[in-house]
Amino acid sequence: MGMNIKLIKEDNYVQQMENVVLPYLKERCTDGFFERVKGENIYYRIFRSDISSADLVLVHGFTEGADKFNEVIYYFLQAGFNVWQIQQRGHGKSFREVKDTSLVHISDYRALVEDLHYFVEDIVKKNRTDAKRPLYLYGHSMGGGVSALYLETYPDDFQKAILTSPMLELDSGSIPVWVANIYAGIMTALGKGTNYMPGNKPFSPEPDFENSCSNCRTRFDYWFAQTVKRPEYQTCASSIVTAKQFLILTQKATDQKNCARVRTPFLLFQAGNDNMVKPGGQETFVSQTGKNGRLVRMESAKHEIYLCSDEDLEKYWKEILDFLE
């Protein structure tokens, strides 16, 4: 595999994560908070590679905790990338607009893009040890949607980007998106925008692998056990306002004029069994950004490609490292 990384295998996963990965990350990690808006702390982590050849900004997905990407960060560090991870608002230790830790409530999608831009300008660029090194972007799911919009808004910040299962078209289940949008508008007008979206509910300590976003039981079980222990990572639901804001975000990100602004070469990973986002928006984004992007379809993978089976991860990481090399 390119850039000499060694993947962790399912048959000895927990031991390797606890005894190898976590101590390795702890030695190379610093963390902190920044305030783009007064009183709204955003948490971040910085990981320095022993063989730094590039810097990479990592943006997690909807309801995800920062630690969920420990395995991903471990591989990037091995490959020579310093990793700069932002914890998006409404998640983990970052600023929340509501007290309910199960609920993601984001009143304006643009805040996500501006938080990321502030992070890049004020934390990443000011603390890099070599400004000549390449700067890359990695965004998953909601973070992928935010990253896509970022590439349209600030097209010169990154040299390359990885969008993995990006949220570019919502999957509203059996309810058509336009119906969900009207419902969200009415409920918001009635002052009930912080209510849970229908079908969403508070965190349950009972695991449900079958309906999860991973096709790897071992990786799912490991992260779920961590989530049960950590209340700040038990975020699992969307408010009505959040759903409406995500709909606007996906529409903006896949708008033809906006797509035409993308100049950054990117790789977009599409999961063949995605149960969270629809593929159409991803395909639209790739087709409307000209020759800048390439779509890689992972047929057997579910939404969380980065936590999938060993076999899927082999292909996933080969594609990523070949592209960034």
Helix content: 25-40%
Evaluate the radius of gyration: 18 Å
Instruction: Please provide the ordered H/E string of secondary-structure elements.
Output: HEEEHEEHEHEHHEHHEHEH
Oligomer: single chain
Low-pLDDT residue spans: none
Mean of residue pLDDT values? 94
**Main sheet properties:** 8 strands, mixed
The count of strands amounts to: 10
- Share of β-strand residues: 15-25%
The DSSP helix count reads 10
Description:
With 325 residues, this protein is of the alpha/beta class. It contains ten helices and ten strands. Strand 6 (135-140), helix 4 (142-153) and strand 7 (160-164) form a beta-alpha-beta unit. Helix 1 (13-27) crosses helix 2 (70-78) and helix 4 (142-153) packs across helix 7. The model has no long low-confidence stretch (mean pLDDT 94).
Describe this structure in a few short sentences.
It is built from 10 helices and 10 strands. It has helices spanning 13-27, 70-78, 110-127, 142-153, 177-189, 217-229, 240-253, 256-259, 279-288, 310-324; strands spanning 29-37, 40-47, 54-59, 81-86, 103-104, 135-140, 160-164, 237-238, 266-271, 293-298. The chain has an 8-stranded mixed beta sheet, sandwiched between helices. Strands 5-8 form a two-stranded parallel ribbon.
